[in-house]
Design goal:
The radius of gyration is 27 Å and the shape is elongated. Helix content is 52%, strand content 0%. The protein contains six helices and no strands. α5 crosses α6.
C-alpha cells in the first residue's frame, strides 16, 4: 500500500522552493520527483495547504434494484453458490450477489466438515 509523504517533508520542500531553490535542485536533494513537487506547489497555491488528499472510491451502483424480489430469489435458490446464483439471476457477477447477500444479512454457504475416523 502506498503511504503519502509526511506533512513535515512537504512543508520543508515548499519552504525550499519558496526561498528560491529550484524545483530540480529540491527534487535531487530530497529524492522526490519533480512532478510531485509541482503538484504540492499547485495544491498549496490553490488551497493553502499541502495535506494529502483522502482518496475515496466511488460508490458502486448495484445491478440488483429490487431487493424484495432478490430476497425471494435467494430464498428459493439458497442451496446454490454465489456463482450459480449470478448465472441464474443474469447480468451480474458473483461479487454483486455477495454484496447484496450481505445487505440482506445472509451468511456465505459453508462447506460441511468431513470426519475421516470415528472417535472412540
Amino acid at each position: 500500500m502506498v503511504h503519502p509523504y509526511s506533512q513535515d517533508l512537504r512543508e520543508r520542500a515548499l519552504n525550499l522552493i519558496n526561498n528560491g531553490m529550484s524545483i530540480n535542485r529540491v527534487s535531487h536533494l530530497l529524492k522526490i520527483s519533480r512532478t510531485t513537487l509541482h503538484k504540492w506547489r499547485k495544491r498549496y497555491l490553490i488551497t493553502g495547504s499541502t495535506v494529502p488528499q483522502i482518496s475515496v472510491p466511488p460508490p458502486q451502483t448495484s445491478v440488483i434494484k429490487d431487493m424484495e424480489e432478490f430476497e425471494k430469489f435467494v430464498e428459493t435458490n439458497y442451496d446454490k453458490t454465489q456463482k450459480q446464483m449470478a448465472e441464474k439471476w443474469g447480468n451480474c457477477s458473483r461479487f454483486t450477489i455477495g454484496r447484496n447477500l450481505k445487505k440482506l444479512s445472509f451468511t456465505r454457504k459453508k462447506k460441511p466438515m468431513v470426519i475421516k475416523k470415528e472417535m472412540i
